[in-house]
Amino acid sequence: MTSSTLRKAMMVFYTALFFLYLFGPLIFMSVTAFNTSSYPQAIPFEGFTTEWFGKLVHDRQMMEGLLNSIIIGVGVTALSVPVGLAAAILMNQIYHRARGLFYLITISPMLTPGVIIGISTVIFWKDMMGLTAVTKALFYKGIILTIFGQASFVSAYCLLIIMARLARFDRSQEEAALDLGASYPQVFWHVLLPFLKPALVSAGVIAFLSSFENFNTTTFSILADKTLVTVLAGQVRQGTTPALSALAVIIISLSLVGAIIYEFMKRREEAATEQMKENARLAERGELAVA
Fold first, then answer.
1. Which of 40, 95, 220, 282 has CB atoms 3.0–4.6 Å from 118's, for a disulfide?
2. Omega into 242 within 30° of 0, i.e. cis?
3. Closest Cα to residue 124, out of 160, 103, 148, 143?
4. SS3 for 47?
């Protein structure tokens, strides 16, 4: 065996070990969802079944928690992305000496423990919404408090994602649009937003996933309601079942499908953009040839 062969064999071995470390637990959990054993186990495989998916669907607490998690995720996304966008634009406009302080303030919720955010959210909004009986009855609810609590730090994630895209924006496009008679709202809607679209989509996905899997803040701000994560935590303390593995299989499958669709759409948009650039280059060459 030559040294080159040994090096390639070691690279293959460590690569396989790396992927086994990453995906091994997910693969084993997926196998337990189809095993007839009443306890989650992949080995020995006693028989194939889809019974645990049926029990998952009929688990009322799990379905209620899943619905609440989706509602909270959508609410956090709807609140965090506009706040992150506004903060990123403001960061790009303010005097450069003030940017450091503004940046520190906006990302500070990311550095704050989720437990502190959850408790402070409940205390703050309890006093604010308790000013009148109407606001307390309408808004002092676990789902609304959790949306506010999670959005306070998820907005910082969105800010960073949008800032990264905004740093590559050519301000001369804005100036050209203004010189041609466009108003500031028109520049925002027709020039800036289309450029930021990929970052806004990414920020929305990150915001939803961050909200969906959040536990620390949610535990305190959800009050008497439940989310999927809090329901899972409660059931795991009482003993896990293959139904939880079935839920993991569904979430992994949805994540993979979403990632594939996103990658497909991203590549198609990139191909369309490249085609437009190529057409523009060909048109320019044609004009030069005519001239």
1. 220
2. no
3. 148
4. coil
In tens, the pLDDT along 256-271 reads 888 888 788 878 877 8
Q: Is 90 exceeded by the pLDDT of residue 229?
A: no
Burial class (CB in 10 A: 0-12, 13-18, 19+), 205: middle
Rounded to whole angstroms, the Cα distance separating 47 from 89 reads 57
Q: Three-class SS string for 222-274?
A: CCCCCCHHHHHHHHHHHCCCHHHHHHHHHHHHHHHHHHHHHHHHHHHHHHHHH
Under 8 Å between Cβ of 81 and 203: yes
Instruction: Answer for the pair 157, 83: CB distance below 8 angstroms, yes or no.
Output: no
Residue pointed to by tokens 């959508």: 74
Cα separation of 270 and 283, whole Å? 20
Report phi then psi at 92, rounded to 5.
-80, -15
Q: How far apart are CA 164 and CA 3, in angstroms?
A: 44
Contact, 46 vs 208, CB < 8 A?
no
